[in-house]
Amino acid sequence: MTVVERALKPFTARLRLVRAVRWAAVGLFTGAAAALCVRAASYLWPMPSALLICALTALAVPALFVLAGLLCPYDVTYAARMVDNRGLEARAQTAIMLKESNTPMALLQRGDTLKCLEEADPRELFPVKPSKLPLLGALACALLFGASFIIANPQTSVLQARAAYRADMAKQAELVDDAARKLDAADPQAPELRKLLGDLSRELRSSEDAKDSLMALDRAEKGMESMSKDAQTDAYDAMEKNGLGELAKTLQANDSQKAKELLEKLKQSGDDKLLNAAAQSAATASAKANFQSAMQALNAGNASQAAQCLQNALGGQCASMAQAMALSCSIRAAVAQSGASKLAAQGGSSAAAGTSGTGAGASLGSTNEDGGYGGLPRTSTSTGTEKPGKRVAEYEPIYDPTRLNVEGVQTNERGKQGEGEIIEAEAGQGIGSADGAVPYNEVLAEYGQKAVEAAQSGELPPYAQKWVEDYFRLLSE
Amino acid sequence: MTIEKKQIEAFQSSVSAIRAEIAKEIIGQEEVVEQLLLALIAGGNALLEGVPGLGKTRLVRSLSRVFDLPFSRIQFTPDLMPADITGTNMIVKAEDGNAFRFRKGPVFASIVLADEINRATPKTQAALLEAMQEHAVTVMGETYELGEPYFVLATQNPIEQEGTYPLPEAQLDRFMLKILVPFPSLAELGGIVGLTTQPQEERAQKVTDAEGLMALRRVAQDVPIAQAVRDYMLRLVLCSHPELPEGTELVKRSVSCGASPRAAQALVSASRARALIHGRYNVSFEDVEAVAPACLRHRVAIGFEGVARGDTADGVIADLLAVVPRG
């Protein structure tokens, strides 16, 4: 650094300060304007921490401007020009140009410049004066921001409803956690179920609205159904492979008397070891356990219990699975209730419709992908939508993932294998709109009927079946 | 030749002494004296314009006394011939018979005062061109050097234009500065009357000589110019041209011909001299702005539209100084 550049240092520092003050004013305006924009946006979209963001913006932006003003380096030539413009008459610029020269003229010029720089006071040359215009702009923004509190924010109720919904879901997640803890450790399906329930609990906690929650529930139920299906297939294959095909078909037909007779016949003919063989050839733990229980019951002379155990094996469910399914149903009901109350809180605002509204009984809509084996009763549902515009204003729209298609295609799912009885159930015409939002009164009856049927056909405990029935009855009243 | 520090330091005292001596004979007109000194130190010719009786001739005479330089005065009239200025070959009797001998004209001096230059015919005016630019005179195919220092200080009267021959652009461009001599103020006029109506006791004395003046010129030529200041001078010249994109609005409207490259040279040289006279060792924007009118006013030709609108060269230059950015 040359002697002139050193002499210019105090001026450079002062210039930085002046620039920082000037930029601070601009930063204040920018920050205030940005905060105002955030505030305006919070009227259009629900923003959970809008005021905090506004405060942070209003503080951080000027701070950044000040930092930039203080830290950005000043080119020494520019500083020389600024000093020259304030009365040094091009001395500093010339001195910097001649910094390498040592001619008598250059030396005299340098000495003259240094003398002038020494006599000059940076504070006098560069007074700190923030420009008024940005400050006035910032003040105007602040006034507008203050005035915005006079106008009620329509998104506040949405945020409150969301918070309440999250609290509800947290409670439901706790129930799921509790249920996962209480699963019977001896139950062979318990570990996998625990994992499914853990996932469900986590997703429920992170769900923003009923749609998220329902999707989480769908995933959990699909997982459970997949487990159940695997166990069913495995049990059926094991029995058929070990010469127990007729017994398996009898049990699937729910002919318990004939099944009991077949079992007693097996015991008498000494073929009860076939059950043991079936247990060994079964791949899933639940099928193995059910076969072993059936064999023990048969050995103890209790053919009815043995038939029940085998029925359980072919049903692919154990007690833990049933509990988990029941829990899922109850959570679905709770989600529907929370979704409805949220909609009510939003006052049926159009912004919330189609995204947050949920409907009761949506669960069955997601179970129409069964590729089951023949013989087992299957349900099939039709999916589709009606043309938009048929929405009934008196009823809240609910989200139905099965009604996303515009054309309303009806799908019938059949059993793909086996010789079992195939039951088709076609329920209702496709209704709704492209965003899956349908007035709940249009699907309530269909959902209720399916839910009750599903509750009764599965392994739900009686109290859980009653929940489902009561829930839909209350909704329709 | 290397400039020594003491020469540089002596510059200002020499100039102060010169001004003090001139002030003995010239009352007021500090600006005119300074500009004339700028022309002398920068090595350029000057054209003084003012009404009669303002002391133009007296000022030039004083200068020649202060610098102790050979001085000649040519009163330009319509019947003045080129040979009356440059000199002529005359037949003289010699030992070996008659012979042509060149008799030097009044142009052979260090300071030539061309009084009322616009009264002579263009042919006679043109006789000064070579002397002003080349510091040489060619007569009958033979060139005679005029020696250094050499200055032509011409005067012209802005009124009484009848029977005059306005100087052509090419000749005007040879003058480094065109200095306007203003009418004196009341106090100055009183001083002039007092000084000139009594027996004059004090006359300007010699301060330096030709060698001293050349030393002053060398020192002035060494004054550094910052790049930004140099660029500013060049922009001023460029912006005076109506045909160039840099030309200002007023220039495009009123000027028919902009300043020549000699204007840029004049700006540089005159600014350097002014900086030193004002005790600075570098040229500043203020120096450029101070010398710009004198350097440019005779080089910026106002067109028909400009004349019709009442625009003047000084108005255009003032606009240039206001509009052209410094850096």
Characterization of this structure:
Chain A is 66% helix and 1% strand. Chain A has helices at residues 3-44, 50-71, 76-88, 91-97, 104-119, 122-125, 132-147, 155-182, 190-206, 210-241, 245-252, 256-268, 273-281, 285-299, 303-315, 319-346, 440-457, 462-476, and strands spanning 397-399, 437-439. The radius of gyration of chain A is 38 Å and the shape is elongated. Helices cover 47% and strands 17% of the residues of chain B. Chain B is built from 14 helices and 11 strands. Chain B has a 5-stranded parallel sheet with strand order 2-5-8-1-9. Chain B is globular. The interface between A and B is medium-sized, with 20 and 24 residues.
Number of strands of chain B: 11
Radius of gyration of chain B: 21 Å
**Shape of chain B from CA axes?**
globular
Measured by DSSP, the beta-strand proportion of chain A falls in under 5%
Distance, first to last CA of chain A: 89 Å
By DSSP, the count of extended strands of chain A is 2
Strand order of the largest sheet of chain B: 2-5-8-1-9
Structural class of chain B: alpha/beta
How many helices of chain B? Answer: 14
Report the structural category of chain A: mainly alpha
**What series of H and E elements makes up the topology of chain B?**
HHEHEHEEEHEEEHEHHHHEHHEHH
Q: Can you tell me the residue ranges of chain B where pLDDT is under 50 for at least 5 consecutive residues?
A: none
What profile does the largest beta sheet of chain A have?
2 strands, antiparallel
Q: Please give the oligomerization state of what you see.
A: heterodimer
Mean pLDDT of chain A: 77
Described by the principal axes of the CA atoms, the overall outline of chain A is elongated
Instruction: State the helicity of chain A in percent bands.
Output: 55-70%
Give a brief rundown of this model:
The complex is a heterodimer of chains A (477) and B (327). Chain A has helices at 3-44, 50-71, 76-88, 91-97, 104-119, 122-125, 132-147, 155-182, 190-206, 210-241, 245-252, 256-268, 273-281, 285-299, 303-315, 319-346, 440-457, 462-476; strands spanning 397-399, 437-439.
